[in-house]
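Q: Structure tokens for this one, please.
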Amino acid sequence: MEPQLRQAVTDGVATVVIDHPAKRNAMTAGMWRQVPPLLAALAADPAVRTVVLTGEGATFCAGADISSLRESPGEAQDLAVRAEEALAAFPKPTLAAVRGYCVGGGSQLAAACDLRFADEGALFGITPAKLGIVYPSSSTRRLVSLVGPATAKYLLFSGELIDAGRALRTGLVDEVLPADALAKRVAEFTAVLASRSQLTQAAAKEFAAGVLDRDAHWGEQARAGGDTAEGVAAFLERRTPRFTWTPGGGPGDEAPTG
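A: Here is the predicted structure, written as tokens:
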């Protein structure tokens, strides 16, 4: 089977699978190119409320396919950054479910997700120093925002792998589970995410990313979108809220350009 990204949507959760098991799910140039249009389609699908990124089998992603680096390292890095930025800009919650190796480009993708859950055997590494590659500035800043400058330097300077326990302590991952419990926990948590207000999630995602001067915009979305009124009514009536706001569906709801 050709290396590819597979995706399926169930109960509001889109699962995207990195599928290249012959090379520990290493990303080829074609797979990097596949990421932005795949995410654009999922962002536009009202049935999708959250996305899970994972790897086929027992490995998340061992990085970029090294053969692509030999052919054109600059182009390969540009493709990886475009994919990473598309994932970071995705307007709905994203979660990386990590098993086994999460290295190089795999760590770039995981770091671009909003959340990361890992099994106890997961290993993380940022390895450009092993190849003489300059890690992209945007990727470096994202890593620093997650783990702080000291841990980011440890990872980038050495290229050494760290285990899931250390990744949890440094903030690189949010939860660590036994291997046989990861899938169940991800399913449970993404069901929670899918049940919550997309209005709240979209605004929080922008604010957390440092987007400024959007308070008035989100205030208008809250007034016009109906989720706030529905949430309060459901609370008072002791029932499950039925949130209806969707990204791109409200008046004047568009992504910031700056």
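A few notes: The first helix runs from residue 29 to 44. The chain has a mean pLDDT of 93.
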